Amino acid sequence: MSVLLGILRELWGLFVDDGLLAIGLILWIVVAALLVPAFGLTAIGGPILFVGAALVLVASLVKAAR
Amino acid sequence: MDWAQAAPPMLAAFLAALVEFVEALTIVLAVGMVSGWRPALGGAACGLALLGALVAALGPALAAVPIQLLQLAVGGLLVLFGARWLRKAVLRGAGRLALHDEAGIFATETATLRQAVGRAIAWTTAFKAVVLEGLEVIFIVIAVGAAGHVLVPAALGAVLAGVIVLVLGLLLHRPLARVPENALKFAVGAMVSGFGLYWVGEGLGFGWPGGDLAIPALIAGWAGLALVLVRVLRLRGEVRA
Predict the structure, then answer these.
(1) CA–CA distance, A50 with B218 (Å, rounded to integer)
(2) Which residues touch B74 (CB under 8 Å, ≥6 apart)?
(3) Residues of A with CB below 8 A from B135's CB?
(4) Does the model's pTM come out above 0.90?
(5) Other residues' Cβ atoms within 10 Å of the Cβ of residue B47
(6) Any CB–CB contact under 8 A between B124 and chain A?
(7) ipTM of this model?
(8) The dihedral of CA B50, B51, B52, B58: what is its sign?
(9) Contact A15 B88 (CB under 8 A)
């Protein structure tokens, strides 16, 4: 049982290390999914998605470096 | 399918699998040298069998998932996975986090195993290492391959990495401490984040200028950003010191 729990914990750790990074990225994807079509920006939605995700990574690293 | 389409997922899976297999090899070697090769190889073989069963059971189910949902789910997980690797590689590159040390991990594992009693612990250690690192490899192969229908080249990349690590492990009989782990993590983080974000965009129906060519552009974008961040964090560290 403890082996299984250990494996599950490690699996969670594959995707979530820094909470700010994980939550920030998920939130940004949700926000982009709602706002990009609402503002008629679907044609350039991809690059917008990248800019937001990049900013989330920067924020996470700035926090980690403090 | 042409090489231009197959090469990026194949390379991403190869590099990621190289990192994971080196980590698994370090643990299995430690178990083998301290507790004997029987529990080490037995645990590793059972781990591989479990991974094989998982792939056989869950693999065909992927075909039943609608492509847009698959792209969104797999892309989202890839972005989380890749950004986590990029973050760690940047912090290590900037000297804010200690580098991954295979020789150190090998020493810690052997010391722990020497104190532990019984073959069951040795077997479990090898089993767990193979299952965990193997699951990461399977995830990456599926993630970079399935959403773009390039599963075979991605799997081939991972198998090739496994064979190389296994052969080197058999020849050297010690951890592969000289593999540039952080540089690999940096490259894989950029590639996986690039693929992930592309699939998320596709899943949401967003446009990408240049179509599929956006993937290499995204990979370059993530890599460029990470290189700049390494520089900035290093400079900030020097200023404070």
Answers:
(1) 8
(2) B142, B143, B146, B147, B196, B199
(3) 7, 11, 14
(4) no
(5) 23
(6) yes
(7) 0.88
(8) positive
(9) no
